[in-house]
Design a protein that fits this description.
By secondary structure, the chain is an all-alpha fold. It contains seven helices and no strands. The protein has helices at residues 3-21, 38-42, 50-68, 73-92, 105-108, 110-133, 139-164. Helix 3 (50-68) runs antiparallel to helix 4 (73-92), helix 4 (73-92) runs antiparallel to helix 6 (110-133) and helix 6 runs antiparallel to helix 7 (139-164). The longest helix is centred in the C-terminal third of the chain and has 26 residues, at 139-164.
Length: 166
């Protein structure tokens, strides 16, 4: 077995446990919930098979759904950002970069990685909270949840990425 695969599986288990045991119980101002597990989709390498990204994103979302009691919302949103990730990564990567490039602050640069993280996290939060409310009756709270959760999730992902690169 490949060491990198084992490391990623262990990292996913740790992120899943942190999300289920700690972060799911944090609701800042009754609207902002941090979603750290989105970080796992950000880390897929440049030429990783697209079918594998979709499958692993769905499995990650399904695990989060099971532990968070959110039936299908996380798996649907994670599958969608798993679909977007390879195409969005191509926008931020130079053409002459290596084929097995893993997105990080070091490989993309800080500004590109922040934009990449903000876009994918925003799309995830937009889809997640749209599926959760399934109505636009209380659209102000929906906007607060999407904006607040995106901001706190991006901040948390950038902190973890800063520690990971050291």
């Amino acid at each position: 077995m490949n060491i990198a695969w084992l490391w990623n599986a262990l990292m996913f288990l740790v992120v899943l446990l942190v999300q289920a045991l700690v972060l799911n119980h944090i609701h800042l101002f009754d609207c902002a919930t941090p979603f750290l597990y989105v970080y796992m989709v950000l880390l897929f390498r440049r030429n990783y098979p697209k079918w594998a990204i979709l499958l692993l994103s769905f499995v990650m979302g399904l695990c989060v759904d099971v532990f968070s009691n959110t039936p299908g919302m996380a798996s649907g949103a994670m599958t969608f950002i798993g679909l977007l990730q390879p195409y969005l990564l191509l926008l931020f990567v130079n053409r002459d970069s290596p084929d097995d490039l893993q997105p990080s602050m070091k490989s993309l640069g800080v500004a590109k990685f922040v934009y990449f993280t903000v876009i994918l996290t925003f799309v995830y939060c937009l889809l997640f909270f749209t599926l959760e409310t399934f109505t636009f009756f209380n659209w102000l709270q929906w906007i607060e949840c999407v904006g607040g959760s995106t901001a706190i999730s991006v901040a948390l992902i950038l902190v973890v990425e800063n520690f990971r690169k050291r």
